[in-house]
Design brief:
Elements (H helix, E strand, L loop, with lengths): L1 H13 L4 E6 L2 E5 L1 H7 L3 H4 L6 H5 L5 H12 L7 E6 L5 E13 L2 E10 L1 H13 L3 H4 L6 E5 L7 E4 L3 H5 L3 H6 L3 H4 L6 H14 L3 E8 L5 E12 L5 E10 L1 H34 L4 H15 L4 E8 L4 E9 L9 E3 L5 H4 L7 E4 L10 E9 L2 E10 L7 H23 L15 E2 L6 E6 L2 H12 L5 E5 L3 H8 L6 E4 L8 E3 L2 H14 L4 E4 L2 H8 L1 H17 L3 E6 L6 H10 L1 E2 L3 E2 L1
Parallel strand pairs: 18-23, 18-24, 19-20, 19-22, 20-21, 22-23
Antiparallel strand pairs: 1-2, 1-5, 3-4, 4-5, 6-7, 6-10, 8-9, 9-10, 11-12, 11-16, 12-13, 14-15, 15-16, 17-25
Helix pairs in contact: 1-12, 12-13, 12-15, 13-15, 18-20, 19-20, 20-21
Length: 590
């Protein structure tokens, strides 16, 4: 998923109409195709260590200011977008609107810099400012439509320049036939807002500038920039409105692409943070700390005011609050709620999808909007990650995806909770030993072709008072009964979840389980039966890495690992590599 997001982001930036670059340690690490084409240097030239971006593409008069901005960015200051100029290879300048954001690039802090080319826009503004006194003459020679209208609330046309058709899609004749045409072609979603601004303009007699949409003659939507001022008579009354219309559709598309690019960069970083948090959670056996980390992360990334992790018990028909955080004073939650209490969060515990709602009256968090995603354990729903905001907001699909990913992190926390095993000692038995074998603390042992003897030896060891953990492919009740294990935890290697039994499937979960057990036990013994099953399901290389990592744990904690293997179930080469990581244990019956 992370790789797909990075690829989408790369394609979007590479095809952006804006100039995009990544600045790290004072050097350009990446520039997109538009930057190369507009500035005149190749990609290889611009990302070369010898290419000084400030000395090369910044005009001399702006270099000191640029160095100051870079220094402020390094210190973490946010710089608002500003107009700027860039030098091209042939020495000419282009006017740009500059913006930047702090990102992580290849694991290190960097700045993503985006320059929107506003050269033509500046030329039009300059031309219009120079020509307002003689707008009728200039109106035929600038790439905007100049107009005059009555202050009647509908902007009834009294004059349009010939460019009106180029800008709006309607001809001079269309406007002459219907002088109120302008108010009729306003986009339905913008009409009320625009007419209200026009009414305020007439009332206040102040200049006005608006951006809105119209529907042209072909039914396509166009974005307009409308700038106007009032013509007053000697009594101070408005006699006419004079202004110009500019088609800014392409600029709006570029802005939307830029916003999408920035949002994609943000989502990519969020996914990267979630991946790192997952690794942290794997090493955090305390459930409360893990759930607090999840809430801290999701509330920060989605800018929420409150959050809770709810777990429901279908049998007892109650919802328990396992974790809660709030930036709003006065919000307190109960430890549990009946499932039928009528609160929106409890109602959604049966929905296996992420949802976002505004204005619900019966809300546990008491916020204006609530957002939740299911927490699943295996194929079953375990609870819900619930967020609240004081703002009336709904999450788009990309934000809901982030919420679902954090709900998956909460699932990870509960999975780790289920992997926690408490060591326990058996009641010591005085019966005479049936098997013999010499153990050295801090050692991993391999027993070949003696699975039954290995179980006997393990049982004898734990029945002598040593804390033990048995991991096996055999059905746990069968093992407990056969070897009289009353307290020793027995873990079943299986993909299935079985009520009343501790089960594990993945090597990662098995490693976490063993690590948690060893941390709590004192000079313990662990029997790992089922090597063939682990190799078949996860691959030999993965199992060997698992063995190498856990062998070190046993060495550090003065514990013993015993692994029975039947020759022929894995190749000689594979068995040889396992032997290099272990010592051979000889077990014999008395």
């Amino acid at each position: 998923m992370l790789h797909e997001s990075e690829e989408k982001y790369r394609l979007l930036v590479e095809n952006s109409p804006n100039l995009v670059g990544i600045l790290q340690d004072g050097l350009l690490k990446y520039v997109n195709r538009t930057a190369c084409e507009k500035l005149g240097w190749t990609f290889e030239e611009m990302v070369s260590p010898s290419f000084d971006p400030i000395e090369t593409v910044i005009p001399p008069r702006l270099r000191d200011r640029t160095r100051e901005i870079v220094a402020r960015r390094i210190l973490g200051e946010r710089i608002s977008p500003f107009e700027f100029s860039l030098l091209t290879r042939d020495g000419s300048e282009i006017a740009v609107m500059s913006s930047s954001q702090r990102i992580t690039y290849h694991g290190k802090p960097a700045d993503e810099i985006i320059f929107a080319d506003i050269t033509e826009h500046k030329k039009m503004d300059d031309a219009l400012r120079a020509s307002e006194a003689k707008y009728r003459l200039v109106g035929e020679n600038v790439p905007v439509a100049v107009y005059s209208a009555l202050p009647d609330g509908y902007s009834t046309n009294t004059f349009n320049s010939r460019r009106i058709q180029e800008v709006t899609g309607y001809s001079l004749e269309d406007y002459e036939k219907d002088p109120t045409l302008w108010s009729k072609i306003l986009h339905p979603d913008d009409r009320e807002h625009v007419l209200r601004l026009l009414k305020e303009h007439v009332r206040d007699k102040t200049p006005i500038e608006m951006e809105y949409r119209i529907v042209d003659k072909n039914g396509s939507v166009r974005w307009m920039r409308d700038k106007a001022s009032a013509a007053l008579n000697k009594k101070g009354e408005i006699t006419e409105i004079h202004g110009f219309l500019e088609d800014i559709t392409e600029r709006k598309r570029a802005e939307e692409a830029l916003q999408e690019s920035e949002k994609l960069a943000q989502k990519t970083e969020q996914i990267d943070n979630i991946s790192r948090l997952r690794d942290v959670l794997r090493k955090t056996p305390d459930t409360s700390i893990g759930l607090d980390l999840v809430l801290d992360g999701v509330m920060k990334d989605l800018q929420m005011d409150a959050g809770a992790v709810l777990v429901f018990n279908q049998k007892e028909r109650v919802t328990s609050v396992r974790a809660f955080k709030s930036r709003i004073e006065g919000i307190m939650l109960n430890e549990s709620y009946p499932l039928n209490c009528g609160l929106s969060e409890c109602k959604r515990l049966t929905l296996d999808k992420a949802v976002s709602k505004i204005g619900e009256t019966s809300c546990m968090l008491g916020t204006t909007s609530t957002h939740c995603a299911p927490i699943n354990l295996g194929k079953e729903m375990h609870g819900s990650l619930v967020l609240g905001s004081q703002k009336a907001m709904t999450l788009d699909e990309s934000d809901l995806t982030v919420l679902r990913l954090f709900a998956n992190l909460a699932s990870t926390v509960f999975e780790i909770e289920n992997l926690a095993i408490t060591p326990a000692k058996e009641v010591v038995q005085d019966e005479r030993s049936r098997v013999e074998g010499k153990l050295e603390l801090g050692t991993a042992y391999l027993v070949k072709n003696e699975v039954e003897k290995t179980f006997d030896f393990f049982a004898q060891t734990v029945l002598s008072g040593v804390e033990g953990l048995c991991i096996t492919r055999e059905y746990p009740p069968k093992i407990r009964g056969k070897y009289e294990l009353k307290k020793t935890p027995v873990v079943w290697l299986t993909e299935e979840n079985v009520n009343g039994e501790i089960t594990v499937y993945s090597l990662q979960d098995l490693s976490v389980m063993i690590g948690n057990f060893l941390a709590k036990a004192n000079r313990s013994i662990v029997l790992l039966d089922g090597v063939e099953y682990l190799v078949t399901n996860h691959g030999y290389e993965s199992f060997l890495r698992f063995l190498q990592m856990n062998r070190s744990r046993f060495e550090l904690l003065d514990s013993v690992l015993v692994i029975p293997v039947t020759e022929g179930t894995i190749s000689e080469k594979e068995l040889g590599l396992i032997e290099r990581e272990t010592k051979t244990l000889k077990i014999s019956y008395r």
